[in-house]
Amino acid sequence: MNFLRRVFPIAGLVIVAASLSGCNILIPDVAADSPARFVQETSPVFYQPPGVDPGRVRPIPDQPVPQTRELYKTQFHQTYGLPVTNPVHAAMYGELRDEDFTLPSIPVSRVQPQFLRQEVDYQTTERPGTVVVDTKARFLYFVEGNGKAMRYGVGLGRDGYAWSGRGVIQWKQKWPRWTPPVEMVSRQPEVRAFSVENGGMNPGLQNPLGARAMYIFKDGQDTLYRIHGTPDWQSIGKATSSGCVRMLNQDVVDLYDRLPAKAEIVVM
């Protein structure tokens, strides 16, 4: 009995092995008999839709890779996670504490980009430290030398076109008083309260001269031509009803700090 118990399991394994010997359960060696058979059985299979000749299908042309990106072209421009306004501009035109006043931030997204402060290539024979006002393009340049200049956008009033030529910034003033000229008082009687005889308008955020004023002289005489700040940021790059050369308050503060004493100015 014990003998049979030992023999039957072994006999079962032999029978199973014999039955499986007729089944092809092993991976055949396709290269064993013929290289042609190997190529046939291992060649890739591609999808070919009916009625389509692969030899007549035109390849898709390569698309040109863009070389530049206008990240801040408009406030609606997609910038792939970057802010829609230039953070440098946001810093330059943010809220600024100056003397006893706090200049409010300027919504730079609503100002045309070319009129925002920026260093540009500028070829000129003028000496570094000279101010050049281009009344046609409405730009003011502070010449830095080496073919560079700091460019600011300006607004021009009626008086801004009244004088051109070469002069000297005889003096400059922080938070100036505004005293409208007699001609303006006669045209606009509502400003009579700020006339010379009445002491002018006190410095402040609503003062038409803004945070700084620069007074232009020629041959020792006042030209009545002024470069000044303005609280009306929307007038930059435009023609206005009054005033000379208007700058954003943050820009006029920047220019004031750059100007050397008795700087030359050219208005064209």
UniProtKB/TrEMBL annotation:
InterPro entries linked to this entry: LD-transpeptidase, LD_TPept_cat_dom, Transpep_catalytic_dom
Pathway: Cell wall biogenesis; peptidoglycan biosynthesis
GO cellular component, one term: extracellular region
GO biological process, one term: regulation of cell shape
Active site: H228, C244
Domain L,D-TPase catalytic: 129-268
Stretches that traverse the bilayer: none
Keyword Translocase: no
Listed Pfam families: YkuD
Gene Ontology MF, one: glycosyltransferase activity
Alphabetical keyword list: Cell shape, Cell wall biogenesis/degradation, Glycosyltransferase, Hydrolase, Peptidoglycan synthesis, Transferase
PANTHER family: L,D-TRANSPEPTIDASE, L,D-TRANSPEPTIDASE ERFK_SRFK-RELATED
Protein name as catalogued: L,D-transpeptidase
Lineage summary: Bacteria, Pseudomonadati, Pseudomonadota, Alphaproteobacteria, Hyphomicrobiales
